[in-house]
Amino acid sequence: MSDPITILIADDHTMFRQGLREILERKGGFHVVGEVSDGLAAVRMAEQTRPAVALLDVSMPGLTGIEAARQIARVSPETRSVILTMHRDERTVLEALRAGANAYLLKDADASELIDAIRAVQRGTATLAGSAATRVLELLRRDSAGETPADTLTPRERDILMLVAQGDDNRAIALKLNLSEKTVGNRLSEIFQKLDVSNRTQAAIVAVQRGLVPPPSLD
User: Fold this and answer.
1) Do 27 and 71 share a domain, yes or no?
2) Average pLDDT of 65-80?
3) 151 contact partners, CB below 8 Å, separation of at least 6
């Protein structure tokens, strides 16, 4: 069996944290390395334990989940941050993704959606879930109207970025474009550098905003 996915839970509501832990432990394949109630503690624990995934509430004492995601990306680059929030304001969600979060879910998501999102970001796939995804994609459509498309990406890099924006992982991209996974990884590194971003989610956002690729379908 593969090693369990290590999880850090950060939320200032004790019952919610306990509920998340129970869901993950009951499902199997996950190991919760710790629970904390504020953003500063989340950053410290992420640096100490290097979890695969950090589940972060937006509204926490000390640091918000957004700022915690930004700092976790710096102190533990291998950790993928998932924002869990009741905030349906698309600007807040977009700010979180720009700060380095790899995905977000509304807190009314069901357990299977949470499990799928954790596994997706652990594989390196960006996740936008539920009705909030619609709001963010609509915001990207509006914001893209004022942006000038960049000319720095090659046609092949645009192809890769299109598939990243659609949620494909490196293996799927390699199969679709008849490339090796190593080549896809190298090309992604070059794309990140050209777009001045640090992960797939940020790349997809910038790509849509700058008109490099069309927004994903809402269907």
Assistant:
1) yes
2) 91
3) none
Backbone angles phi, psi at 105, to 5 degrees: -135, 145
- pLDDT tens, position by position, 121-167: 887 766 665 555 555 555 555 554 444 445 578 888 888 988 887 77
Q: What is the count of structural domains for the chain?
A: 2
CATH code of residue 9: 3.40.50.2300
Q: Are 52 and 92 part of one and the same domain?
A: yes
215 domain residue, yes or no:
no
* Nearest alpha carbon to residue 164 among 142, 191, 131, 145: 191
Beta bridge partners of residue 108, listed in sequence order:
none
Instruction: Answer yes or no: is 65 within a domain.
Output: yes
Instruction: Name residue, tokens 């080549």.
Output: 183
Best CA proximity match to 136, nearest among 172, 186, 90: 90
